[in-house]
Specification:
The chain is mainly α. Helix content is 69%, strand content 0%.
Length: 448
């Protein structure tokens, strides 16, 4: 036997046990690491929350653009300030108390409870190990992020209604109360496992809990605040006050339309099975159908009613169609989504003039779009969703409406007494951009 052969045999004798140890370690690691079947549902549902959440976040831009386009140019910067401020305040308040009010778990009572004052939950540590046994159905952080977006949306609805005559700081104080307390409490009644959930009330993505709630808060504010200077003549005549930038309002509507796919689709709350992800696709299709039908219905009806097509009616018709399908976007057929959304468009064309007759000044039409179409969408659920009833749906809508309206009214009245709600008539005529901010969105143009 040569020296080379002896060296080779010696090396093999050393390496073979090492190779066996490495193989055993690899097999042990493979056995311990969970496969995609174990962690896949967690990953996919977390992604659904994150993608849905940032789509709903993009709706904040939609509200800002819609409102900036529907107010006069002298009030544009103020509306933009309100929208970025209200979203930021909602983020802080939902973390501070809102999340624990909305999801109190076993300690739930009718009015909710504060729970842990700071921090909604212990978020996952950085680099959480992929131990399937330790994972919930989705990341806590992603769930918190997604639910926060709905809270902020509720406040965005109020902003447009009260535009062009409300002081900035009292409005922001109301946002603190709305996002930290009012919305989380009423939402806990359904989504936090509260009494409406036990009663059998159904609101898939928030036609009542988000949209009608925002509409009721806006209605209370509009009543306390009063109409803009010059909106209603002494003879009762309604004086149209057109917006400054319809291209911007149209862009805002398309942004909201896009964000609504996350709003409704993400509310499936699961994407870990073939059935769940198929349902998300169905929700997307129904959401788009309802929006389209609402826009077309408003387009045709405005032509018939007014002799000309009204673009603002068409924009609000699309949004009303979206609100209408939000309570039940999964169960209807495409035709079902079509007629539900179309009725939303009809509601807008008839109720916007009705508010004018009632001397309620809603600058962007948010009350018809979110409150009244939200009522219709909530009541349409039993047509397609088994186990629901019209009586239960009405009880749910009425209870949330009364709670939000009464509490909001009290808060608005307190703010009016303590801080004052309206700017002066002189400031309103000059524009809130100058009186509230000392700056203008379009400084090169003549204010009008």
């Amino acid at each position: 036997m040569t020296l080379t052969t002896r060296i080779s045999l010696s090396a093999a004798a050393v390496l073979m046990p090492l190779a066996a140890v490495a193989q055993e370690a690899t097999e042990t690691a493979e056995a311990a690491a969970p496969g995609f079947d174990q962690i896949g549902p967690y990953i996919m549902t977390t992604l659904l929350f994150l993608i849905g959440g940032f789509l709903v976040f993009w709706m904040a831009a939609g509200f800002a653009m819609l409102e900036a386009g529907l107010v006069r140019s002298k009030n544009t910067a103020t509306q933009l300030t309100k929208n970025i401020a209200l979203f930021s305040i909602a983020s802080l308040m939902y973390w501070l108390v809102g999340f624990n009010l909305m999801y109190p778990g076993d300690g739930w009572i009718v009015a909710g409870y504060l729970g842990t004052l700071f921090s909604p939950a212990v978020l996952e540590p950085v680099g959480l190990a992929a131990d399937a046994a330790a994972l919930d159905y989705a990341s806590v952080a992603s769930d918190f992020f997604f639910q926060l977006m709905f809270c902020a949306t509720t406040a965005s609805i109020v902003s447009g209604t009260l535009a062009e005559r409300i002081k900035l700081w009292p409005f922001l104080v109301f946002v603190v109360v709305l996002t930290g307390f009012i919305y989380p409490i009423e939402a806990s009644w359904q989504w936090g496992g509260g009494w409406l959930s036990e009663l059998g009330f159904s609101d898939f993505a928030g036609s009542t809990l988000v949209h009608a709630a925002g509409g009721f808060a806006a209605l209370a504010g509009a009543i306390v605040l009063g109409a803009r200077v010059g909106k209603f003549g002494k003879d009762g005549r309604v004086v149209p006050i057109p917006g400054s930038n319809l291209p911007l309002a149209t862009l805002g509507t398309f942004i909201l339309w896009l964000g609504w796919f996350g709003f409704n689709g993400g509310s499936q709350l699961a994407a870990g099975t073939v059935g769940d992800i198929t349902d998300v696709g169905r929700i997307f299709a129904n959401t788009n159908m309802a929006a389209s039908a609402g826009a077309v219905a408003a387009l045709i009806l405005s032509q018939v009613s007014f002799g000309k097509i009204d673009l603002t009616m068409v924009l609000n018709g699309a949004l009303a169609g979206l609100v209408s399908i939000t309570a039940g976007p999964l169960d209807p057929s495409l035709f079902g989504a079509l007629w539900i959304g179309a009725i939303g468009g009809v509601i807008v064309v008839y109720t916007i003039p009705l508010l004018d007759k009632l001397k309620i000044d809603d600058v962007v039409g948010a009350i018809p779009v979110h409150l009244i179409a939200g009522f219709w969408g909530t009541m349409a659920v039993p047509f397609y969703t088994e186990g629901t009833s019209f009586v239960t749906q009405f009880i749910g809508f009425a209870s949330i409406g009364i709670f939000v309206f009464v509490v909001s009214m009290v808060v608005w009245l307190i703010l009016k007494a303590v801080m004052g709600l309206r700017v002066s008539e002189e400031a309103e005529i000059a524009g809130l951009d100058v009186s509230e901010l000392g700056m203008e969105a379009y400084p090169e143009f003549t204010r009008g």
